[in-house]
Amino acid sequence: MKTRFRMFMVATTALTIAAGVASAQDISKFVLSDAAAKRTLIKNEINAETARKIIDKCIDIATKANMPITIFILSPTGQIVASHRMDGQVPINIETALLKAQSVLVTRDSTHLRANMIANNMPQQLKWHDIGVFTTSGGLPIIAGGQMIGTIGIGGGSKDEEMAFEALEAVVGPQPPLAPTVPAK
Questions:
Q1: How far apart are CA 93 and CA 159, in angstroms?
Q2: Quick check: 22 and 146 in contact, CB under 8 A?
Q3: CA distance 98 to 158
């Protein structure tokens, strides 16, 4: 238990440091234009162009790895901004990709970090499940200028989280570091 807590504290500290780096980004090129924000009454929402670039990068990474995936990018209010299903996906891959992106909206951190927090704790797992949080790696917040401008969820591959992270860093810039893998008991 102490080891898991220590790993959680290290991950939390790393996320805090990375958030400082991410806050130095120029958020304006990743969010809605002033004209679009005037119509929607929200500014810090990922724009369609950035979402498409992230999806295209994910597809490129997955294609090179010969690993078909499904990707969802959501706005901070939970609306689908962009999505893509590669050929060869079964319904559960599509559903989990969406669940991962939606779960990040609730927790504001990665689904992997949440999975680490409740590993080997069945009551906590049931609690998170009951409120709709899917605790399997592959869901990440999209951070620009220190703000969560959207979320990404990937399903269907064996490296969902790593693909999402690589695409986000390539398109948006520095992101909070990935959660460590907690050893199974």
A1: 13
A2: yes
A3: 16
More confident residue, 161 or 8: 161
Q: Where in the chain does DSSP place strands (E)?
A: 70-74, 80-85, 139-144, 147-155
> 185: pLDDT confidence band, cut at 50, 70 and 90?
low
Which candidate, 90, 51, 50, places its Cα nearest to that of 70?
90
Polymer length of the chain? 185
Residue 21 Cα to chain centre, angstroms: 18
What's the predicted TM-score (pTM) here? 0.83
Q: How far is Cα 72 from Cα 51, in angstroms, rounded to an integer?
A: 9
Instruction: Bin 179: left if φ > 0, else alpha if -120 < ψ < 50, else beta.
Output: beta
Q: Domains (ranges, CATH) in the chain?
A: 2-171 (3.30.450.150)
pLDDT tens, 64-98? 999 999 999 999 999 999 999 999 999 999 999 99
Q: How far apart are CA 171 and CA 81, in angstroms?
A: 16
Instruction: Please report the pLDDT score of residue 126 as a whole number.
Output: 83
The interaxial angle of helices 91-107 and 111-118, nearest 10 deg, is 80
128-141 average pLDDT score: 89
| CA quadruple 4, 139, 57, 85: dihedral sign | positive
